[in-house]
Structure formats: C-alpha cells, structure tokens
Amino acid sequence: xxxxxxxxxxxMQWAKKGFTIVELLIVIVVIGVLAAISIVAYNGIQQxxxxxxxxxxxxxxxxxLELYYNDKGVYPGTPNETxxxxxxxxxxxxxxDSSWQNLVTALDPYMKGIGRDPISTPGVGVxxxxxxxxxxxxxxxxxxxxxxxxxxILVYRFENTPRKGFMSGECPTNPLHYSTPSIHRVVK
Length: 188
Fold this sequence. Notes:
By secondary structure, this protein is of the alpha+beta class. It has helices at 2-17, 21-72, 100-107; strands at residues 92-94, 135-137, 151-156, 165-168, 182-187. The protein has 3 helices and 5 strands.
C-alpha cells in the first residue's frame, strides 16, 4: 500500500498547483474592469488638461488684445487683421479656418504664437455650439453702443469644465445668445 500512497500524494500535490477555469475567468474579469476604469479616468484627465490649455490660451489672447488696445486705442478688427472666416462669417476670425492667421499676425508683436484649440475642429464654427475652436470678433461699426473696434468677443468651448461667461462693459443693444460655448466679451 505504500506504493499507491505515493502516487496518490503526488496526484494531490499536482492538483493543488494549478488554477481552475473559474479562478482564471475571475482574474480576467477583474483585469477587464480595471482596464475599463483606467481608460475612462484617462479620457477625463485628457479633457481636463485640454480645458486647462484653453483657459491659458484665452487668458493670453486677452492680454495680447489689451496690449494692442493700449498701443493703438482700438482692438484689431479690420478685414486684414481678422476678417475672412468661412466657418462663421466674414467679420470673424476663427481657428476653424485660415482666418485665424490674420489675428495671429495682428497680435504677433504682443504675443508670439497665439494658440489654437487643442482639438481644433476645421470647418466648424464654435458659435453654433459644436466643434472646438476659438473665434474672435470686433465690430467694424457701432456695436453694443461702442464705436467701431471698441469691443470684442472671444468664443470658445470647454469639454469637461462648465460653460463660462465673462462680460466687461455695457451692451444694452446686442445681447449674446450663445447657449453652449463660453464667451469673453469686452466693451470699452
């Protein structure tokens, strides 16, 4: 009987060394759940990072616009400086098309390399509430009761941050009706 005892003990020891199918399936499911959670968290982190970049870009553009205004007494707005957007209308400059380069050129002495939206959506006007772009407008005529080039509007859109609206100065005649994008408007 001693001979059979050794075979039986060896078989039992071998059986204890492996994993069952159920154990392997549980491990695979747990790994899958952890991977899914990681992917969702990573996407949220990317959106938050892009929103932080947008906030920084808008703050830098606002500073450049104010420096331009301090030097020239007006905001950039002539067709050579901002016009020509095919995505919104000819009075706007936007990262959705080549019109943004006009504003970049006008503000170049005040800020090198004005940014584009991190996921700029070509051909889509951000004022419609879709797409991710920056858009700039300065009126060539009286707007908000201000003389030409004495006001501007910046429109942009966040992914993961609540919509923001900043309004400086009075504008009794032209309220903004953009419900989705964020707005930065200054009237002198």
